[in-house]
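The methods section describes the discrete structure representation at length, but only in general terms. An entry of this sort, consisting of the sequence and the corresponding backbone structure tokens, reads as follows.
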Amino acid sequence: MVFFQGQEYERRIQKLKEDVRIIFANAVDSVATFELIDSINKLGLASHFDIEIKEALDTIASTKMKISSSEEDLYTTALCFRLFRQHGYEVSQDMFRGFMDEKTGLFRDNTHINIKEMLELLEASYLGLEGENILDVARDFLTATLKERISSLDSDLAKQVVHVLELPSQRRVQWFDVKWHINSYEKDIHMNSSILELAKPHFNIVQAKLQKDLRESSR
């Protein structure tokens, strides 16, 4: 990575922010937008793009709140549900009803749900409200299934599964999880270099400030 100082550094940061805003504008569909917002949140950059995030979610919400699970895959539905709930939108657990067997009350085609879908649905399930039994069923099923499958996964994917099983993101202090997500994002074949380049120095700057504040408060 190239390091910048002073005004050159500030210009580079502003350029990276503009690059990310262009990514928002050029997102080809709601899934791409959801994944972009999710990455920005996890990498600790949300404060730089709060306007873009709100506008994007408002736009999608105006057309997608009546989302049908028959029209979306499980991964997309779970990601949509999680991000809307995290950002304060009203969204129903009924989004998942189309994936369930009415007779058994369990998710259909359990053996065909891939790990990516499992992790996203498990994270979404922790945003359930009291009495939302569909999410309770999902959480119990996925926790057991992921524990069974973890030994057969490759190293990087197994680390992601362990991370979620140990403590879902909804129960973590978000900032203290940023470094883990930066390391994970760097290994993602779909990662965007502008987002990664922006996330690394931002983390170092904020972390240094937090450590300085901690030292001063302990005097």
Remarks:
- The chain has one domain: 6-179+191-208.
